[in-house]
C-alpha cells in the first residue's frame, strides 16, 4: 500500500501478493456460513420460479423466460450480499492497517479480494442456477408422446449462455458493491450503501431510461441506452443470444459489444473505485484531520 | 475442506484454475455453436400434427387423389407440423401468427413426386401412384398453374429434379419455379373467415331449395284416396307422374312404396288446428319402413306416420370391414343406411317432406344414395332411451336441407354422413344422444337451432371435414354444446349454457367467435396439440371453469388486441390496477381461474412474484406447454343481452345475431325444447 515509496515492484511479486490475498479472502468466504445459506436460499427461489412458472417442463428456453425477471432481482441481491463488506471488513477490524505493512500493493489487494469474491459468486449463484439447468435438462419433455417431437432450437448450450450472462450481471453488482464498501465507515453504512447499489441498479437504471424516453430521447437510442445499465445489458444479451434464438433471425435487441463492455465496465469500475478509495482514503482522512487540528 | 494456507493448496488452486478454464471453454463453445443449425431428419408423416387442408375429404379418403405434403420443424414448437398442400404451408409462412406462435422453420421437407408416377385424375385432381420422397423445401422445385388441382383449388406439385418437373409441365401445363419464388406468391387458400362470409349465402341457398321444392310439389290433383282408390298405395299406383294424390284425414293402416314423381298430400298432422281428428294418419305394421320412396321429385306433406319396425340398422354390415374394391365406408353406409324408418328414400333426389310427424322406434327419415331432400316442419318422436332407437334423420350421401323441424328422443336428431352442403336451421332438438351429428360432412350450415338435454352433446362434427359453419345455435343442459372437428370451421354466435362443456376447439384452422359460454361446468376446452385456430370475442360467464387445455403448446386466444371476455378477469381493471384489457388473463392458471369466483385472488395475481413470472409468459409460446393465454381480455362482454338471457332459467332460446340482423327470433311453435322444459 505504500507502492511509491518502495519503488517498482516486479510482476511476480505482484502476482504473489494477489495470490496471498486471494487465498486469505477465499478462506474468509469459506468460513462464512451465511454464504452457504445464501446459496441454498437462492436455489430454493430459482427452483420455485421454475416449478411455478412451468416453462421448465418443456425446455431450457421457456425456463429461461420464467427465470429472467426474477433473476434480475435475485442475482444482484446475492452479489451485493457477497460484496457489501468486502473492503470494509478489513478496514474495520484493523487488518487493513496490518496488511499495509506487508509488501502488497493496492491493486493486488483489490484484485485478490475481488477474484476470491467472484469465485464465491460463481459458487453461490452459478451453483444453484446450474443445478436448475441440470434439473430442467433431466425433466423437460413434450406434453404428449403421440406425435413426433423435436427440440427446435432449444438446447443446453442456450442455458450455458444464460449462466454466463448471469455471472456477468452478478460480477458487475459484486464489484460495484465491493467498491462502494471501501468508503463505508461502519457495517451499518455498508448495508445502506449496498442497498443503495442494489435498488439503484435494479430499478434506477431502467427508471432513468424510461425517464429519458419520456423526456424526448429518440426511441432508436433505446438499445444503446439499455446497454449502459447492468440490468439492461443483461436483459438485452439474454434476449439477443438466448431467447432470441427462437425468434426469426433478424431480431436485434441490444448491441452485443456495447452490452458486454457495459458489464465489464461496471465490474472494472467497481474495482478501480474501491482501489482508489482505499489508496486515497487515508490521505483524505489525514487531510481532514489536519484541517480539524488547524482550527 | 479447502485450506488456502496449506503448502500444497497450490494444487487445489491449479485444479480450480483448470475448472475455471473448462468453464470458460464450455461457455465459449456455447456461444460458438448455433443451435438453429441442427436440422432434424424427416419423420413418418403419420406422426406429425396436421395443419392445412383436410386429408379426409371424399376423394382423398377413397385413395384417388393425392395432396402434396410438407413437414416442418419450427424453432419454438416441439411438435413436427404437417401441412396438406404446399400452398397451405406457403400461406402459413406468410401469416404473422405463425411466426409469433411457432417461431421460424429450422427445417422443412416437401413430398416430391419425381418417381411416383404423378398425374391428374379424370376429375382434375392431382394423383400419384406411389408415395413421394421427402426433400428439403428449399432444394425442391415446384410446378404451379398446372391442370392438377386439390379438392380446395389450386395445388402446387413439388419435384426434387427440375427435369421431372419439366416432364410434368409437358403433360399437364404450368410453370416450374423455385422455393423463394413460391414463398413470395400468395395463394387463394380458403380460411374459416371465408366460411363465415359464405354462411349467409348458404342460408339463402337453403331458401332457394325450399322455394323450389314448394314449386315442384304444387301439382294438379289426379287421385283422391277413398274416392278414386281404396288405399294410398293403390292411389299412388293409379296416379300419373307429376300429379297430386290427396289423402283425406283419417287413419290408413298400410305401408306405401312410391316409385314415381308424385305429391302425396295428407290433411295435416292435426297439430296446427289443435284437433287430432283432422289428421291424416299413416300407420305401418311394425315391420320395416312405412313409406318408401324410390323416385325423384316426390313430395310428402301433411301426414302423421307411425308403426315403423324396430331394426335400427343392418348389424352385420355395420361391423363388417370393407372388402377389396369397395368404398372405404361401405360398412357404415350399408349398416346405417339400412334400418327401418317412417319415410325411407333411396336415390330419391328432390324429395320434399313438409308438415310431417313421425313416431318411430328406429329412424324417422332415412335418406340414402343421393336423396337430396328438403325437410320442413318435420317432427320426429323417437324412443325415450337413445339406445333403443335411431336417428331423427339419417342422411347418407344425400344433401339435406332441414328447417323448422323438431326432434325429440332417439339416438341423434340429425345424422349426416357424407352429406356435403347440407343445411340444418331453425329447428329444435331435445333428449337425443347428439342433436346434430356430422360425419365426413363439410360445407354445411348449422344455424339458429335450439338443443336441450342432449345426453352427449348438441352439435358434434366427427372425422375431419372442412368448411362447416355452426352459427346462432342455443345449446343448454347437455353433455356438451358444440364439439366440431375438422378444418376451416366457423363456430360463431352460439349460446351455450348449463352444459357440462360449452365448446371444444377441436377443429383446426378454424374460427371461434362471439359465442357465449355461460354457467357451464367447463366453458371451453382447447384440444388440438398445435394451436391453429382463432378464438376471439367470446364471452365466458358464470362457468365453474372458464377454459382448460389438453396437452400441447400454449394457446394464445386473441387476435392482436382483441381477446375474449372472461368474467372475473376484469377485476384488475375495476380496481384501477390495469387499463381495461391490458392485463393478460390465463384461464388455465389457478390464480386467474380463481378470479372468476373470488375477487380477492387479485391480490395474489398482483404480487411481484406472479407479475414477474407472467410478464414474459407470452414469449416463445410454442415452446411452452399447456394452457391458454388471453393477452388482451375484453373489459366488457361482447353480447351482454345474450349472456343475460342464457343465464335466465326461464328464458327461451336465444339466437345470436350472426347475420347482423335485428330480429332476435324466438322459437317456433312446435318447439321440442319447450316440451322438455315444461
Low-pLDDT segments of chain A = 1-7
| Helix content range of chain B | 10-25%
For the sheet with most strands of chain B, the description reads:
23 strands, parallel
Provide mean pLDDT of chain A, rounded: 86
Strand residue content of chain A: under 5%
Largest sheet of chain A: none
Distance between the termini of chain A: 30 Å
List keywords for this structure.
heterodimer; A: mainly alpha; about 0% strand; globular; disordered N terminus; B: about 675 residues; alpha/beta; Pectate Lyase C-like; 16 helices
Describe the structure.
The complex is a heterodimer of chains A (295) and B (678). By secondary structure, chain A is mainly α. Chain A has one domain. Chain A has helices spanning 3-6, 11-30, 33-53, 60-83, 88-93, 95-99, 106-139, 156-181, 187-214, 222-226, 230-241, 256-294. The radius of gyration of chain A is 22 Å and the shape is globular. The model of chain A is unreliable at 1-7 (pLDDT under 50). Chain B is an alpha/beta fold and 678 residues long. Chain B folds into three domains: 45-189, no CATH class; 201-579 and 634-646, Single-stranded right-handed beta-helix, Pectin lyase-like (Pectate Lyase C-like), CATH 2.160.20.10; 580-614, no CATH class. Chain B contains 16 helices and 49 strands. Chain B has a 23-stranded parallel β-sheet that branches. The model of chain B is unreliable at 661-671 (pLDDT under 50). At the A-B interface, helix 2, helix 3, helix 4 and helix 8 of A face helix 1 and helix 14 of B.
Amino acid at each position: 500500500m505504500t507502492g511509491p515509496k518502495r519503488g517498482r515492484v516486479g510482476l511476480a511479486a505482484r502476482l504473489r501478493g494477489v495470490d496471498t490475498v486471494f487465498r486469505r479472502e477465499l478462506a474468509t468466504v469459506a468460513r462464512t456460513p451465511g454464504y452457504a445459506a445464501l446459496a441454498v436460499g437462492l436455489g430454493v427461489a430459482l427452483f420455485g420460479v421454475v416449478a411455478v412458472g412451468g416453462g421448465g417442463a418443456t425446455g431450457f428456453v421457456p425456463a429461461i423466460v420464467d427465470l429472467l425477471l426474477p433473476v434480475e432481482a435475485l442475482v444482484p441481491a446475492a452479489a451485493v450480499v457477497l460484496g457489501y463488506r468486502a473492503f470494509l471488513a478489513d478496514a474495520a477490524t484493523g487488518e487493513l492497517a496490518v496488511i499495509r505493512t506487508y509488501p502488497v500493493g493496492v491493486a493486488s489487494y483489490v484484485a485478490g479480494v475481488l477474484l476470491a469474491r467472484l469465485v464465491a459468486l460463481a459458487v453461490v449463484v452459478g451453483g444453484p442456477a446450474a443445478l436448475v439447468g441440470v434439473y430442467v435438462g433431466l425433466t423437460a419433455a413434450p406434453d404428449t408422446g403421440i406425435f413426433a417431437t423435436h427440440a427446435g432450437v432449444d438446447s443446453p448450450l442456450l442455458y450455458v449462455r444464460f449462466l454466463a450472462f448471469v455471472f456477468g450481471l452478478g460480477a458487475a453488482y459484486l464489484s460495484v458493491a465491493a467498491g462502494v464498501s471501501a468508503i463505508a465507515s461502519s457495517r451499518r453504512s455498508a448495508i445502506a450503501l449496498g442497498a443503495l447499489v442494489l435498488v439503484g441498479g435494479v430499478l434506477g437504471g431502467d427508471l432513468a431510461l424510461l425517464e429519458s424516453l419520456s423526456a424526448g430521447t429518440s426511441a432508436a437510442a433505446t438499445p444503446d441506452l439499455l446497454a449502459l445499465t447492468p440490468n439492461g445489458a443483461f436483459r438485452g444479451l439474454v434476449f439477443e443470444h438466448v431467447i432470441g434464438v427462437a425468434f426469426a433471425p433478424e431480431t436485434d435487441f441490444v448491441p452485443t459489444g456495447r452490452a458486454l463492455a457495459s458489464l465489464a465496465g461496471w465490474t472494472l469500475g467497481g474495482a478501480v473505485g474501491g482501489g482508489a478509495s482505499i489508496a486515497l482514503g487515508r490521505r483524505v482522512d489525514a487531510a481532514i484531520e489536519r484541517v480539524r487540528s488547524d482550527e | 475442506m479447502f485450506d488456502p494456507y496449506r503448502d500444497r493448496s497450490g494444487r487445489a488452486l491449479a485444479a480450480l484454475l483448470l475448472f475455471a478454464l473448462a468453464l470458460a471453454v464450455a461457455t465459449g463453445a456455447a456461444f460458438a455453436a448455433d443451435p438453429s443449425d441442427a436440422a432434424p431428419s424427416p419423420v413418418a408423416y403419420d406422426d406429425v400434427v396436421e395443419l392445412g387442408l383436410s386429408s379426409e375429404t371424399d376423394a382423398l379418403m377413397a385413395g384417388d387423389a393425392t395432396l402434396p405434403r410438407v413437414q416442418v420443424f419450427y424453432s419454438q414448437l416441439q411438435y413436427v407440423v404437417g401441412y396438406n398442400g404446399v400452398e397451405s404451408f406457403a400461406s402459413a409462412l406468410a401469416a404473422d401468427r405463425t411466426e409469433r406462435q411457432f417461431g421460424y422453420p429450422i427445417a422443412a421437407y416437401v413430398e416430391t413426386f419425381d418417381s411416383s408416377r404423378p398425374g391428374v385424375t379424370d376429375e382434375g385432381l392431382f394423383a400419384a401412384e406411389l408415395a413421394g420422397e421427402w426433400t428439403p423445401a428449399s432444394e425442391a422445385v415446384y410446378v404451379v398453374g398446372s391442370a392438377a388441382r386439390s379438392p380446395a383449388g389450386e395445388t402446387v406439385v413439388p419435384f426434387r429434379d427440375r427435369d421431372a418437373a419439366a416432364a410434368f409441365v409437358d403433360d399437364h401445363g404450368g410453370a416450374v419455379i423455385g422455393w423463394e419464388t413460391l414463398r413470395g406468391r400468395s395463394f387463394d387458400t380458403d380460411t374459416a373467415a371465408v366460411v363465415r362470409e359464405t354462411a349467409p349465402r348458404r342460408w339463402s341457398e337453403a331458401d332457394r331449395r325450399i322455394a323450389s321444392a314448394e314449386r315442384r310439389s304444387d301439382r294438379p290433383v289426379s287421385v283422391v284416396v277413398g274416392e278414386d282408390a281404396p288405399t294410398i298405395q293403390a292411389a299412388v299406383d293409379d296416379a300419373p307422374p307429376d300429379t297430386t294424390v290427396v289423402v283425406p284425414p283419417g287413419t290408413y293402416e298400410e305401408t306405401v312404396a312410391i316409385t314415381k314423381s308424385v305429391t302425396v298430400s295428407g290433411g295435416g298432422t292435426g297439430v296446427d288446428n289443435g284437433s287430432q281428428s283432422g289428421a291424416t294418419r299413416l300407420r305401418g305394421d311394425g315391420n320395416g319402413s312405412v313409406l318408401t320412396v324410390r323416385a325423384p321429385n316426390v313430395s310428402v306433406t301433411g301426414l302423421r306416420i307411425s308403426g315403423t319396425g324396430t331394426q335400427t340398422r343392418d348389424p352385420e354390415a355395420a361391423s363388417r370391414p370393407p372388402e377389396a374394391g369397395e368404398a372405404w365406408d361401405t360398412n357404415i353406409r350399408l349398416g346405417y343406411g339400412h334400418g327401418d324408418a317412417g319415410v325411407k328414400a333411396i336415390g330419391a333426389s328432390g324429395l320434399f317432406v313438409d308438415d310431417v310427424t313421425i313416431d318411430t322406434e328406429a329412424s324417422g327419415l332415412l335418406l340414402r344414395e343421393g336423396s337430396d331432400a328438403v325437410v320442413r316442419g318435420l317432427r320426429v318422436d323417437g324412443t325415450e332411451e337413445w339406445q333403443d332407437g335411431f336417428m331423427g334423420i339419417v342422411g347418407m350421401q344425400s344433401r339435406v336441407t332441414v328447417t323448422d323441424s323438431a326432434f325429440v328422443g332417439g339416438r341423434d336428431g340429425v345424422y349426416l354422413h357424407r352429406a356435403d352442403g347440407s343445411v340444418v336451421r331453425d329447428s329444435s332438438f331435445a333428449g337425443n344422444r347428439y342433436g346434430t351429428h356430422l360425419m365426413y360432412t363439410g360445407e354445411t350450415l348449422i344455424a339458429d337451432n335450439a338443443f336441450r338435454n342432449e345426453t352427449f352433446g348438441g352439435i358434434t362434427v366427427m372425422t375431419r371435414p372442412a368448411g362447416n359453419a355452426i352459427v346462432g345455435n342455443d345449446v343448454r343442459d347437455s353433455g356438451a354444446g358444440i364439439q366440431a372437428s375438422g378444418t376451416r370451421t366457423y363456430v360463431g354466435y352460439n349460446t351455450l349454457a348449463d352444459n357440462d362443456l360449452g365448446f371444444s376447439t377441436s377443429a383446426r384452422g378454424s374460427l371461434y367467435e362471439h359465442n357465449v359460454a355461460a354457467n357451464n361446468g367447463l366453458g371451453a376446452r382447447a384440444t388440438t396439440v398445435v394451436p391453429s385456430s382463432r378464438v376471439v370475442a367470446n364471452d365466458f360467464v358464470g362457468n365453474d371453469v372458464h377454459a382448460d387445455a389438453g396437452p400441447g403448446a400454449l394457446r394464445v386466444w386473441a387476435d392482436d388486441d382483441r381477446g375474449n371476455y372472461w368474467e372475473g378477469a376484469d377485476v384488475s381493471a375495476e380496481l384501477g390496477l390495469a387499463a381495461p384489457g391490458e392485463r393478460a388473463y390465463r384461464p388455465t392458471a389457478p390464480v386467474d381461474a380463481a378470479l372468476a369466483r373470488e375477487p380477492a385472488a387479485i391480490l395474489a395475481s398482483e404480487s411481484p412474484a406472479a407479475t414477474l413470472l407472467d410478464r414474459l409468459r407470452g414469449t416463445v409460446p410454442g415452446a411452452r406447454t399447456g394452457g391458454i393465454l388471453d393477452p388482451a381480455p375484453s373489459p366488457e362482454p361482447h353480447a351482454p343481452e345474450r349472456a343475460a338471457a342464457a343465464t335466465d332459467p326461464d328464458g327461451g332460446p336465444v339466437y345470436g345475431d350472426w347475420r347482423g340482423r335485428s330480429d332476435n327470433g324466438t322459437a317456433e311453435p312446435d318447439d321440442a325444447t319447450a316440451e322438455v322444459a315444461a
